[in-house]
Structure formats: structure tokens, C-alpha cells
UniProtKB/TrEMBL annotation:
This is Gluconate 2-dehydrogenase subunit 3. Pfam families: Gluconate_2-dh3 (PF13618). InterPro entries: Gluconate_2DH_su3. It comes from the Bacteria.
Amino acid sequence: MDRRSAIKAVTAVAGVIASFSLFKSLYNNRLMGGGHVVELSDFQTLIGDIAETIIPKTDSPGANDAGVANCVVKLIGDCESREAQQSFINWLKRVERDSEKKYGQSFSSCNYPQRVTILIRYEHNDEQNSLFRKIRLRVLGMDGMELMKKYTIISYCTSMEGATQALAYDYVPGVYQPCLAMGAGQKCWATN
């Protein structure tokens, strides 16, 4: 390869990267600019219903019993960028649209199997360790379903109900034991 073609290739790659950065900046400005600002708290009921679909009530408390919706709204509102929050809100709107389109009713009005069917659409199991997933996470960040699962699990496992009733909880931990044998049917430990 001669110097001229190397310079052209480097310039082309730099141009593509600069164009993508400009596009992303303009897109984010369009998301943030003007109009009515939608707050996450407007979707608290939907977030609670999605969380209850992810962690339903069985012999242990469900996500709604643990008050997960309040915590998810607080965590996403405080810990995620404005762009990620807007992307999450757009995902919630898509879930509602999909529910209306497929079943003719809101997500909250659907029964459990219908809710599961709607949410399975947003799973990315086929790309768990793929290069495409790594690029998507790097460029676009986590999608709505990944954020929802992440913060639902954090909220549930750190709640009083989740830690004490769904997980094994030791109120006064003793000495550190790095490896413990677990009995048949024993719950995971809430504290490490």
C-alpha cells in the first residue's frame, strides 16, 4: 500500500467516525430539545407491572411487594444519563404500543402469559457474547430491557422483602468464610 492510499483510508475512517459523532450529537439534542419533558414517574405503574412480570410473586414476595417500581424510577433517574433515561422512556412507550397492537389493551391489563410474550421480544439471548452486542453496548448503551432487568434485580435484592424472604439473610454476620457448602433447596445469601 502506498502512502496516498493509506492517507485516503485513514481520512475515510476519521470521516465516518466524525459523521457518526455528529449524528449522535444531533439526535441527542433532538431528544432533549423542546416539547413536553416526560418524567419517569409518569410510567411508575408500567414499570411496576414489568418488574412484577420479571419477578412474579410465588412462595416469596414479588417485585410489587418489595416496592421495586419506586426504586427503579429513583435509580434510573439518579444514576443514568439524560439520554439513557429518554431511551428508557421510549422503550416503555414501545412496550405499550406493542401491547396495544398485539392484544388490544395496555400492558397492565394483559395477563401474565401475554406480558411474558411481549417482553420476550426484547430479549437478546442470541447475542450474549457476540461482537455485535459489544459494539451496540459501546455505541448505544444498554437497551430498555437490559436497564429494566438490571435495576429490577438490584432493587429487589436490596429491599427488605427480597433480602429477608427471597434470599437467605444473616442479621449478624460472623467470621468470613469464603466457601460454604449449600444444602439442598437452600436460598442464595443476601449478604456476602
